[in-house]
Design brief:
The complex is a heterodimer of chains A (327) and B (264).
Chain A lengths: L2 E14 L4 H9 L2 E15 L4 E5 L6 H8 L7 E6 L9 H4 L2 E5 L11 H12 L3 H15 L14 H13 L5 E5 L7 H18 L2 E5 L3 H7 L2 E6 L2 E7 H8 L2 E8 L5 H5 L3 E6 L2 E7 L3 H11 L2 E7 L3 H11 L5
Parallel strand pairs in A: 3-7, 3-8, 5-6, 6-7
Antiparallel strand pairs in A: 1-2, 1-4, 8-9, 10-12, 10-13, 11-12
Chain B lengths: L2 H19 L4 H20 L9 E2 L2 E2 H26 L2 H7 L1 H6 L5 H7 L8 H17 L5 H27 L1 H4 L5 H10 L10 H10 L7 H7 L5 H29 L5
Antiparallel strand pairs in B: 1-2
The chains are: A alpha/beta (327), B mainly alpha (264).
């Protein structure tokens, strides 16, 4: 077992401030504190080599959980164990086997080419020269870093910088990767490049990856298993397809008609979601999709027909509204 | 990690900063010229004090120049080693870079304290030492071996004391977040070290010796070099350096615990 989390809980004490000068002054003398449950009794276990996506709206507790696993925050209650270590003790042997990448934060030296940060990390992690060269060569090839290595970091684009950040974080060949929003703010091309890299790298090295992202595409492309968290609580833990099955037991039938027809004829097929011009979207029960499609083709003047799963974003938001779903 | 590994790291850190500083080459020359100007100004302005008298509080002009030179040296060393590192701490906390530092398998206090070097200020200690040498030459005085050893002990202790003070003040950033000003506070305290503590009287002198040990920065090392300091003061300086260093390190750990919320 790579990561084991039991009843993990983390509260923050934040001081509350009402607007206005008067309350600012009162705050100087008498602060009012409020307890925020950032992570509330979460349990899960992850096997070595698993890639797990962490989904949830802003402030749901994803980053707090990741920080506890990386040893940066003490849990208020509960317990976490990663590779047999207790993260918050931050033992050197533990830190040498993990890595933390935060999309919006920077560890590269601004005024120097990325290779200089790599050399500093080599020294900090005590990586032998031969192993360093070999790892670096591999990362350079996978991430296409060759032209970037000798440019000052401040001259790189955001996407290029993220590639270098990833390389800097993987030189010591960690076994567990905590990736917090690694594609934040990147353009579509850069996003998919980072995504492809994470997929290749995790498969080749069978590392454990725990990844948070705003972009559903990141998670669906990389993780077969997802954890959905909202308001500090774990709402779903399981297979992505199973989540789709259980919360969205329907598919979307998209038709393009040759000529307009009566909406009643369409309603006979299923629940009409949209009917504009010649384009129609109908909600059809998952298990009868093929039968309905065949019937539609036989009876209606159809130019084109596709069957789709509802967008994942929609399903996730349904999880948030319906409450806990068990896999 | 072994001492050798840490030294190797320092070597890489310093090479690394040197390279990025060379990106801004012009500031080096400008800094040296400014420092030279201030040094000459300081040396000439204290001359005024001696128009009426040979000695002030037992110090001749040349002896006072030793103190002025030492002041420049100490301040230069501070800007070379301490200031570029510790003043970054509140930035680390605000930008979240500290999270990267804390996930590195290395002593975080070491990384935070010695990561950078203020290359553009490397002229100051040399200029200060040059003035000190000039003053000794004008006196026609050569310090003995013991004097030099005492002097070096005191300078090393002074640096550790200064570092510990700085680290303690900067560590409060864990609770106060923005304390960039604190750096200038330390600097203005050190300003008092331009003159020997004997120039001050009463409780001010006492405070500068005991509470804020400015006397240990310049007066005592100068006296040691001039062969006028009892050896036990060097022992006190060493002890003080040791105790303050341990205190500052403990306080750093308390700060880290608060950062990770271990107390709540």
């Amino acid at each position: 077992m790579s990561i084991q989390v039991e009843h993990l809980t983390r509260y923050y004490r934040v001081h509350r401030k009402e607007p206005g000068l008067r309350s600012s002054i009162r705050n100087l003398f008498h602060r009012r504190y409020e307890c925020i449950k950032a992570v509330d009794d979460i349990s899960f276990a992850i096997e070595q080599g698993e890639v797990v996506g962490f989904l949830g709206p802003n402030g749901a507790g994803k980053t707090t959980t990741l920080k506890m696993l990386a040893g940066l925050l003490h849990p208020t209650a509960g317990r976490a164990e990663v590779l047999g270590y207790t993260p918050h003790r931050r033992e050197r042997e533990y830190l040498k086997q993990i890595t933390l990448v935060m999309g919006q934060r920077n560890q590269l030296f601004w005024d120097l080419p990325a290779i200089e940060t790599f050399i500093v990390n080599q020294a900090i992690y005590g990586i032998p020269e031969l192993q360093f060269r070999r790892t670096l060569d591999e990362l350079v090839a996978l991430l296409d870093l060759e032209p970037l290595l000798t440019k000052q970091v401040r001259k790189l684009s955001l996407g290029e910088r993220m590639k270098c950040e990833l390389a800097a974080s993987l030189l010591h060949q960690p076994r567990v990767l905590f990736l917090d929003e690694p594609t934040l703010g990147l353009d579509v091309d850069a996003q998919s490049a980072i995504r492809d890299f994470i997929r290749c790298y995790s498969q080749e090295h069978s590392v454990t990856v725990l990844l948070t992202s705003h972009y559903m595409a990141d998670v669906t492309a990389l993780a077969r298993r997802i954890l959905v968290i909202d308001d500090g609580r774990l709402m779903y833990d399981g297979n992505l397809e199973a989540l789709v099955e259980s919360t969205a037991p329907y598919k979307l039938l998209r038709l393009t008609l040759q000529q307009p027809i009566d909406e009643i004829d369409l309603a006979a097929l299923g629940q009409v979601e949209r009917y504009e011009g010649l384009k129609v979207t109908i909600r059809v029960p998952r298990h009868s999709t093929t039968a309905v499609a065949a019937r539609a083709l036989a009876r209606l003047p159809i130019a084109d027909l596709t069957i789709e799963d509802p967008p994942i974003e929609k399903i996730i938001s349904e999880v948030f509204h319906q409450g806990v779903v068990y896999a | 990690m072994t001492l050798r590994a840490y030294l190797r790291l320092l070597n890489i850190f310093y090479k690394n900063t040197l390279m990025s500083e060379l990106e801004y080459r012009t500031s080096f020359t400008a800094n040296v010229l400014t420092s030279l100007f201030w040094l000459v100004w300081a040396a000439l302005s204290v001359r005024v004090f001696f128009f009426q008298t040979e000695t002030i509080a037992g110090w001749t002009y040349n002896e006072l120049l030793v103190v002025v030179g030492l002041f420049f040296t100490m301040n230069g060393l501070r800007q070379l080693f301490l200031q570029p590192n510790l003043s970054r701490l509140s930035e680390y906390v605000q930008m979240g870079t500290l999270d990267y530092i804390l996930t590195k398998p290395i002593n975080s206090q070491f990384l935070v304290s010695l990561r950078y070097i203020g290359v553009e200020n490397c002229g100051d200690p040399l200029l200060g030492l040059a003035l000190l040498g000039l003053a000794l030459w004008r006196m026609g005085y050569t310090p003995g071996v013991i004097d030099v050893l005492l002097f070096l002990t005191l300078v090393a202790s002074a640096l550790v004391i200064l570092y510990s003070f700085n680290l303690m003040i900067q560590t409060t950033t864990f609770w106060l977040i923005n304390i960039r000003r604190a750096d200038s506070l330390v600097w203005s305290l050190l300003e008092a070290g331009r003159f020997p503590v004997q120039f001050y009287t009463g409780w001010v002198r006492l405070a500068l010796t005991v509470i804020v040990p400015v006397a240990f920065m310049t007066t005592f090392p100068a006296q040691a070099l001039l062969g006028r300091l009892p050896a036990w003061i060097a022992a006190v300086a060493l002890l003080m350096a040791g105790v303050l260093f341990l205190l500052a390190s403990a306080f750093w750990r308390v700060g880290l615990r608060s950062y990770s919320g271990a107390s709540s």
